[in-house]
Amino acid sequence: MNTHEIINEGKIHQLIKEGSTSTKEEVLAIIEKAKEGHGLNLKEAASLLMVEDPEILNSLMEAAQFVKEKIYGKRVVIFTPLYTSNECTNNCLYCGFRVANKHLHRKTLTTKEIVDEAKVIVEQGHKRLLLVCGEDPKKTSINHITEALEAIYKETDIRRINVNAAPMEVEDFKKLKEVGIGTYQIFQETYHRETYGKMHPSGSKKDYDYRLTAIERAMEAGIDDFGIGVLLGLYDYRFDVLATLMHSQYMDDKYHVGPHTISVPRLRPANDSAIKEVPYEVKDEDFKKVVAVYRLTLPYTGIILSTRESVELRDALLSLGVSQMSAGSKTNPGGYGEEDKEATQFETSDERKLDEILQVICQQGYLPSFCTACYRANRTGEAFMNLAKEAEIHEFCQSNAILTFKEHLLDYGSDTTNEQGNVLIEKALKEIENDRLYEITLQRLKEIEEGKRDLFF
Ligand code: SAM
Ligand code: SF4
User: Which CATH number does 69-351 carry?
Assistant: First the structure.
């Protein structure tokens, strides 16, 4: 396969050039079109990415907020990562796990240790995990990952496990599918080949094309639920955001399935990083613009924000389009059991506990969701996309958010969170437009209060 067909660098540069010549009227017309919630093409996205005028930026942010609420309502899905290993044979210059970092406390958890971590996470009230590991053919082979998934599903109350791991062959993806992976997540880091080469000087991650085509091998293995993204700060964000959108469009054209999620990791200081200064700093204002442009271009794609970002910014980004957020995260293997700063991948910015984060989300009027229904109801891939594109998903999601949040409040919520959460649930119930769905949701809430669990649409 000619991978230049997937990412055409010349075309991206051309789009950036053309985008910068758009007039104010043209940009405002694109923003109006975006508010219809049917997405934008690459040319339109490029014009929005080039906006610097504060007044137009303001309209852009308002439009993103409008579309987010139209498609996702006030919901925000909560998850947390579980790092199973920090051993890695690659040497990504920016990462604390890189092989050249001799100071890192290396550790690969056994399956039992992984389950113990998952149990601590469950105790905090989580239902959704992102399993993360370094790439080491011996220590983090496919068996390490599949055994972890099987054991966590069997021995804990975790209901969905997404995986962020190195690209693999179709055969290994099939094994991941068999053990019930949720989303397979892989970031290209940067789509700019030359920069990619500099950032990944050795190890198997050197191979740009093998990484770029990973999601197609996953699709071939039957995993139609995939997440992509770039590590913001490695190269010009405008290039990398457009490339991410180009990759997404390629998948949509070829397989009729776009990314389930796009993540927006921004480069953080890491233990013994070989990068002392961020090569292409992405300012907070530009970061917000990136989230807004993703939201407007791909209204039905989830946007994931992690604890890499500060409390203030995370709270602001919620309104702009973020639909999933990690909470209470640790980036070292075994981190939920014991603290070890010398084993972490990068510094997190938001150290708040889940319960505290839920309070802030409630205070902002957003509805935390612990829902894992789609994947268990087989609403993935094309089936999910069709629903999501028609915004029907919104109806089920609101009810599922209410039910799972109620469960969480009853089982894990502090008094303050309970108080705030119940007010929010009352408000969210009133927003259900379909009378029948409203009645069933009320009935199920009652059943949950009486002790039933895991009810979903
Ligand atoms: N080892 C696998 C890989 O590289 O794809 C999967 C796990 S890796 C720990 C997950 C992601 O962490 C990487 O794709 C990268 O985007 C992100 N990451 C690495 N170093 C980072 C840093 N210093 N700041 C923020 N994110 C970072
Ligand atoms: Fe290893 Fe992934 Fe870190 Fe690169 S980003 S050093 S592959 S863990």
Answer: 3.20.20.70
